[in-house]
Amino acid sequence: ASDPERALGLLGSGSNNEVELRILSTLVKGNPELVLNRLAEMKDEAGLEGLNLTGQSLITELARQSPGKLEAALDSLPHGVKGEARVALQRGKMSADFPTELRKLQDNPDGKNLFRELMRSDDGSLRDKLPSELAGLPASWKAEIADSANWFVGSDPAFWLDTDLNAAGFTTEQAENLKIVAAGELLGKKPEEALRFLAGMDLPPQTRSNLIWNATTALGEDSSKAEAFLALLDKEEDRETANRALESLSRNAPVFVDQPSEWVEKVMASDSKMDLPYQYLSMLQRWDKQKLAALGQQFGSLPERQGQPLAGMLADYRGVDADLRGQAVRYLVS
């Protein structure tokens, strides 16, 4: 047996699901049958009603590597895993032929729920194909799109701003909501283009103020982008809103930390339920390899109860250095 298989055997029944899922992730390509059997054995164990990022990645890779085996095993899987697997399998089919599979999905009694989950977890590759199919969607699906606008407009907000959504079958209220959300998305990506769209939109003052505030906050971490955005604002009330947002951002932003020992101390002292730890995680993108390596060595000096939450954050944060993530995963399974 391989090292991961031996480690899996040592864990036994009632093990730490997070650690076990990480080990299973290493076995997907070489031994999918073992992975599926172990997932089925977890049926009565706690913690599998909803999968975390590790579990979601595991199921996604199973669907990519062994879709037939995963589909055949669906009925043996725990409820939460089965739902994730159905979405992953459907994603593979729609990636291959989006228009045909979308029409089939509309005939599926559970199609709208599957569609919702697909769009919520999509990386943009499916949502990019949706605009050309809008007119043919059922009214209830269009209502779903409008109610969850943030999931749908992000990949191409200019499309939603530039399209006659009423002609595509959306109600006036739905179309307005989609365009407001799209304007917010575009302000963060291409502010000059977004402001041109905003000039033609008849928005309530508070709605416009919220859009300017949120865009300023998103751009405010980069002072040059924030200054460029301010220079584009030709309305006095917009400039006032943007300046207030920058002042608020400055008051609440954590001080940049570039020493591993101090970084660990700050993160461990923060509330993991708040945004602050992830603001510190984003700082790591500005560190060099030497400092990241030093941070990885910090795990060995931490008590297990303290080290596991920190390692879990680093392992799940996609923006962190790959080597550091690997060290975090090894810490969790050691």
Characterise this structure.
This protein has 334 residues and is mostly helical. The protein has 21 helices and no strands. The longest helix has 18 residues. The protein is flat, with a radius of gyration of 23 Å. The two termini are 18 Å apart.
Record keyword descriptors for this entry:
21 helices, single chain, 68% helix, 334 residues, 0% strand, mainly alpha
The helix/strand series, from N terminus to C terminus, equals HHHHHHHHHHHHHHHHHHHHH
The overall pLDDT, averaged over residues, is 84
The number of helical elements comes to: 21
Query: How big is the Rg?
Result: 23 Å
Low-confidence runs: none
Task: Choose one word for the global shape.
Answer: flat
Largest sheet: none
Q: Provide the structure class.
A: mainly alpha
**Spatial separation of the terminal alpha carbons:** 18 Å
Total strand count, please? Answer: 0
Helix content: 55-70%
Proportion of beta-strand residues: under 5%
Summarize the structure.
This protein is mostly helical. The protein is built from 21 helices and no strands.
List the helices and strands and how they pair.
Elements: H1 3-11, H2 17-25, H3 32-41, H4 53-65, H5 67-72, H6 79-96, H7 98-106, H8 111-121, H9 139-147, H10 149-153, H11 157-162, H12 172-189, H13 191-199, H14 205-219, H15 223-232, H16 236-252, H17 260-269, H18 276-283, H19 289-297, H20 304-316, H21 322-333
Helix pairs in contact: 2-4, 4-6, 6-7, 6-8, 7-8, 9-12, 12-13, 12-14, 14-16, 17-19, 19-21, 20-21
